[in-house]
Amino acid sequence: MRNVVVTGCGVISPSGWKVEEFWQALSLGRSSTVTPGAMPDSRLKVAEITDNSFIQSLPVNASALDRSAQLAVAAAGEALEMAGISKETVDPARVAVIIGNGGAGLITLDEQFKRIYADKNPRSHPLAVAKSMSSSTASWVSIASGMRGPTFVIASACASGTHAIGIAAELIRSGLADVAITGGAEAPLGEGTIRAWESMRILSPDLCRPFSKDRLGLILGEGAGVLVIESEDHAKARGAKTLARVSGFSCSADAADMFNPSEDGMALVMREAIAKAGLSPADVDYINAHGTGTLANDRTETRAIKAVFGADSAPPTSAIKSMTGHGLGASGGIEAVATVLAMSRGLMPPTANYVEPDPECDLDYIPNVARPAVLKAAMSNSFAFGGLNASLLFTA
Amino acid sequence: MRENSFEVIKTILVEKAGKAADDITMETALGDLGIDSFDFIEFVFYVEDEFDIQIDVNSNQSDMPMKTVGDIVAAVDKLIAAKGQTEPFGSAAAA
After folding, report:
1. pLDDT along chain A (396 residues), means of 10
2. Contacts of B40 in chain A (CB under 8 A)
3. How far is B21 from chain A (nearest CA, A)?
4. Which among A158, A208, A251, A361 is annotated as catalytic?
5. A118 Cβ contact partners less than 8 Å away, ≥ 6 residues apart
6. Are A95 and A138 in contact (CB under 8 A)?
């Protein structure tokens, strides 16, 4: 089996456009304050695309892409640039594109349904199908980059980005590809989707405060987080700088409840990701938690971490959804980027908006202030509706 | 307590949640009916639609903010009173 390394990353999130702005926000523990004027309330966070240069380089107008694909293409462009990879410098047929999204095309569908049902306009936009099919995010990254290897999306709700990176790494290990452009992308903030989330009554009325006793739920977000990963031999042969290794991955299903998370399911994937890396729990220096800020996730994830690492020996754990909002299918990609940056830059991002300890959430959550650390192994967790669990372990 | 509200809520529990009418009294705990936290959110959705009210529930505040059928009836009656209505409306109420 081949070793897999990370050589590039790109991100668009409510916390910032591109890696430097994103990392600055996370380093400062800054919660996004960008709110959309047209949205029905202020509890939402929206990533602003302030630089469309990569999208403008597409062979077609950006309006041919759903916003989820625009975000994916932009983040992939940054990751490829950092990795120093283009279709001219590698064999495009050996580059996979594996993108996670919970439901790409949601804004396109929202717009088309409004035309038909509300505006009583019987004609749909001719690109509605191509814009709303969930695989369009991966297709557009392929078209934009010219890469022609295995290309598809992975849908596992809020774990999609983490599943995508883990499966892409397995494709490289097994020899199906040498390189993969992989992560998550999501643009869910059409009014129909927002109302659907509201009706679950798990949105916070103000801030997302993961693991804090007074937490009142999640904040919806959007964005994309993309890694370029490749076999270690491939990276060495072209003299690429390695940011981290993708050393362990595990995924599982609870086969139990659609909404309530399972401590055992969470613990299982964390244990297996560590074991696949040939490490023990004591070797893990940092956990980038799923940490949504809901009552159920945060206490269950805390119990699972304690079960794996020991009640008094869990590594520092933080939830950047406190700053980025919940990017749903994008979140695993965005958080993988944050975890890789934490390792390569020696700084653990904090859990922002943390106010008060919860007796049921009693780990070190790096409250509000980032903390310098040498990280040899760091974990990124995603636990989705539907009982889908995924955990990635990166090593130095 | 308004008996009407109770009957409407009971009908919702029977028709939408598949519960047995004989099991439902004002004192019945929602947990004893097998209603978990997410069933509860769906149940509240139907109650709000039926009475045209909004019940302030954030499912992150506790597992089950209202414990019994009577708690729901009380919340509904309070909201209806606040709207200035004397009777709930909706097809189930007329039955």
Report:
1. 95 88 94 51 52 62 89 93 97 98 93 94 93 96 96 98 98 98 94 87 88 92 95 98 98 94 97 98 98 96 98 97 94 98 98 96 98 98 97 98
2. none
3. 26
4. A158
5. none
6. no
